[in-house]
Specification:
Distance between the termini: 26 Å
Number of strands: 0
Order of helices and strands: HHHHH
Helix content: over 70%
Structural class: mainly alpha
Number of helices: 5
Shape: flat
């Protein structure tokens, strides 16, 4: 994974969350938009957790990394359950809003330059500045 990828995914998740909240308001009503906004916050926190886990991946053994990913996944499931069942946010809006996580991963990955392009660009800049 490219080092720029997690931050692009986080930015794309925030943008997708805003877009899906506005979509929920346009399709349904303000209750659905609130549900989508709550789901967008959950999606953004999860995207940040992905960012944090990937930053720690190189320093952890495989068991520790698996444990972190498992904890993050369980936390996502529990937070969705709490929002829908216990707090009672609009199910349709929440379902639409949590899609910001998927859109963020797809868009963020698509917007991130490939690792080979990044290496070529930095090598070209090094040559331009006389660093060889």
């Amino acid at each position: 994974m490219n080092s720029q990828s997690p931050s692009k995914i986080l930015s794309a998740t925030v943008a997708s969350s805003i877009l899906l909240t506005l979509t929920a308001f346009a399709i349904w009503d303000e209750h659905a938009a609130i549900g989508a906004a709550v789901a967008g916050v959950v999606a953004c926190v999860n995207a940040y957790a992905i960012h944090w886990v990937t930053s720690k991946a190189s320093t952890l053994n495989p068991g520790g990394l698996a444990g972190l990913v498992l904890f993050k996944t369980i936390a996502l499931l529990v937070s969705c359950w709490i929002c829908i069942v216990k707090i009672g946010v609009d199910f349709n809006g929440f379902t639409l809003g949590i899609g910001a996580l998927v859109l963020g991963v797809l868009l963020g990955s698509a917007l991130t330059p490939k690792a080979s392009n990044v290496a070529e660009t930095s090598a070209t800049k090094d040559r331009e500045h006389g660093i060889a």
